[in-house]
Design brief:
- With about 325 residues, this protein is of the alpha/beta class.
- The chain has 3 domains: about 55 residues, no CATH class; about 190 residues, P-loop containing nucleotide triphosphate hydrolases (Rossmann fold, 3-Layer(aba) Sandwich); about 70 residues, Beta-grasp domain (Ubiquitin-like (UB roll), Roll).
- It is about 35% helix and about 20% strand.
- The chain has 11 helices and 13 strands.
- The strands form 2 sheets. Strands 1, 2, 3, 4, 5, 6, 7 and 8 form an 8-stranded mixed sheet that branches. Strands 10-9-13-11-12 form a 5-stranded mixed sheet.
- Helix 1 runs antiparallel to helix 2 and helix 2 runs antiparallel to helix 3.
- The protein binds guanosine-5'-diphosphate and magnesium ion (MG).
Length: about 325
Amino acid sequence: MPANLPPQYYEIERKYKLAKTYEEKIAILQEMLAIMPKHKGTDKLQADLRAKISKLRKASEKKPGAIRKAYRHHIPREGAAQVTLIGPPNVGKSQILDNFTNATPQIAPYPFTTGEPVVGMMPLENIKIQVVDTPPITNEFLPSYLPSIIRETDLALLVVDLSSDEVLDQMEMVIEKLKEVKIKLVGKMLKNTCTEGIIYKKTLIIGNKKDTEGAEQRLEVLRDLYKDEFSIISISAINPSYQDNIKKVKREIYRALNIIRIYTKAPGKPVDLNDPIVLKEKSKVIDAARAIHKDFANNLKYAKMWRKGKFNAWKVDKDYPLEEGDIVEFHI
Ligand SMILES: Nc1nc2c(ncn2[C@@H]2O[C@H](COP(=O)(O)OP(=O)(O)O)[C@@H](O)[C@H]2O)c(=O)[nH]1
Ligand SMILES: [Mg+2]
């Protein structure tokens, strides 16, 4: 019986020949398996693929230094903060990266198109946020370098698919898979970010494909179940008429990051509102000074402060707590 394979299959097969690491090879074989039509004619091919995957997996576990190498996978932070898109295959992670940032990832209507993390910069008013797109998480497979990327990032964006009746299973599956590697996704951060080896990672839930039929109802169910644990926003990454939603997502990402923007000025000079210093919430005047230069912080005598809603500037000392939008003039 002829196998009747779709044209993408041959494209992926070509990629497989170029793949270098076990990780890449496994991801590509999974992809081939996913798009392969399931009928008698492909039974043998499917079995061959499964056997190859399991062989590669064994080999990758045996490879000396494999774990160490995977663990070292590190994406250098750029911009004001780093957020990481995670989730099952085909939920629209790459589409989101494509729409929100300057990166151009591969987007395809079949799973496993993202084999490596892809990075883009997302403009957010006067700052830039780094967005990382990652390979999919499935019940069978968690890319070995993914946990270290999630551990290091400032905020996880868990994307689920509102067009699918499996949306609740998707949430549950990702949460559970990450628990297995000691990462607990949380909507609000507790005081300790790490207890008994478990890392708590602040997470925003993005319900994507809100343009599809039944999405509203699924969103409601998702909210009913998870609203006490997580903030959940719904978007359509594909439809430009949902631009307002993209704005909303950016606002939510900013809020979830718990950062503030401070503007500094030199005495007698105007303030540059295009070039903020980005600090953690609850930072002090001295932290802003330190962000400019260590010596600056050491020699700081006092600062003059302008704040929204206050008509006049006033004098503050180095431990004065800062708020979003403050303008600070340092005196040394
Ligand atoms: N209807 C609809 N389809 C979407 C949306 N976002 C992504 N898609 C489609 O979903 C499929 C998977 O998208 P992709 O970004 O590759 O998913 P990923 O595997 O999570 O990176 C593609 O065919 C996209 O065109 C959306 O908001 N609405
Ligand atoms: Mg993708």
